[in-house]
Amino acid sequence: MKQASENTIGADSTVPYHSKPERIQELRRLLLNSIEKCTPCDCILLSGGVDTSILAEAAFSVYNNKKKNDASDSNDDGNKSSSRLRPMTGAITVLCTDQATDEFYATQIAARTGMVQEIVKITLDSVLEELEFCIKVLETFDPMELRNGIVIARGLSVAKSLGYKTVMTGDGADELFAGYSFLHDMSAERLQAYSDKLTKVMRFSGVRLAQALGMELVQPFLDPELVAFSQQCTREEKINYHDHLKEREWQDRLSGRQLHGKFILREAFENEAFSAWRKKEPIEVGSGTTVLPKLFQESMAPEDLKTEQDKILAEEGIKIRDVEHLKYFKVFKKVFGDDMNQYPEKLQKDGRDPCPGCGFNLTTPDQTFCVICGQWPARVLPPPEEVAKAGNASENIKI
């Protein structure tokens, strides 16, 4: 099934859009099944966004209903009901500044579910403590990857210190259900092609960070049946307008008609999830790590940065973009050293397919973003829908 329509309901339409009830119920069934397979789990990295709000609150909704059924069965047969394990015990929320937007939502969700919440407030010094670990594990000096990775690493480290061994995350929902704002202006055809590509290449730093800490990460949104369902969603089901109720403005922090990604996912769990219609915010916004570029920038004079940029470009062939990039690169060099022969397999610089920003090899022929230095575009390719057409044409020829 491909896109049935490429139009969202317009912002000025008098008729609000709703996905078909049978589609909503199928999505609920698939995600609840996936959550059940992943629980009981020790804790969740709770940002308070729609993804973790759904996972936490849907899990407890099912748990509470089953507890009621157990009690009812116990009364009917006169036997004491067996105790059920709670789906999760703890919630870890990582914040970098007092302006971080996650705290309000995460605290509400923890209270609603009865989870023991640990709020971790990190400073620039503690960020730098995590940096070396993140760079070593993720093999990168890309600022965006590291800003996100630092938050996840600190959350996992705290979880481990509290004795938790399995941790749930909301990874995958944005990729599967068009949560990113840059997808929202795409036509149905382009969105389908881009989503298909994202599904193939998506990767999450939490997996490697958890493994390095001897922990297990569970990701309910990445269940194969749920991934397959997302690939069959229409553009309307993924991206559409929602009318925010006046009485929920304090909760949604939005008013009037607003465009949302992950539309059908929000619809499916709007009765359980406190953050169902919260505005999508990147992890670095919610946690507050967006302050890092400014803090780093203020720590170095422009002329000193220029001197360092010129020196590294001449000696290493690497284009340093700003002070934050420079700081991460210096830690990268501290971790991996100067002898390229001792570098991990991923960090090869033999000229076969070099990134124009750092010279390290790009890993695949269709890679447009360098996962080592963060260069974008790292190469220019035809749009995903053109690649998809070419692929379909070649398949037809083979048949």
From TrEMBL:
<keyword id="KW-0067">ATP-binding</keyword>
<dbReference type="Pfam" id="PF00733">
    <property type="entry name" value="Asn_synthase"/>
</dbReference>
<feature type="domain" description="Asparagine synthetase">
    <location>
        <begin position="27"/>
        <end position="188"/>
    </location>
</feature>
<keyword id="KW-0547">Nucleotide-binding</keyword>
<dbReference type="InterPro" id="IPR050795">
    <property type="entry name" value="Asn_Synthetase"/>
</dbReference>
<dbReference type="InterPro" id="IPR001962">
    <property type="entry name" value="Asn_synthase"/>
</dbReference>
<dbReference type="GO" id="GO:0005829">
    <property type="term" value="C:cytosol"/>
</dbReference>
<dbReference type="GO" id="GO:0006529">
    <property type="term" value="P:asparagine biosynthetic process"/>
</dbReference>
<feature type="domain" description="Asparagine synthetase">
    <location>
        <begin position="208"/>
        <end position="295"/>
    </location>
</feature>
<dbReference type="InterPro" id="IPR014729">
    <property type="entry name" value="Rossmann-like_a/b/a_fold"/>
</dbReference>
<dbReference type="GO" id="GO:0004066">
    <property type="term" value="F:asparagine synthase (glutamine-hydrolyzing) activity"/>
</dbReference>
<protein>
    <recommendedName>
        <fullName>Asparagine synthetase domain-containing protein</fullName>
    </recommendedName>
</protein>
<dbReference type="GO" id="GO:0005524">
    <property type="term" value="F:ATP binding"/>
</dbReference>
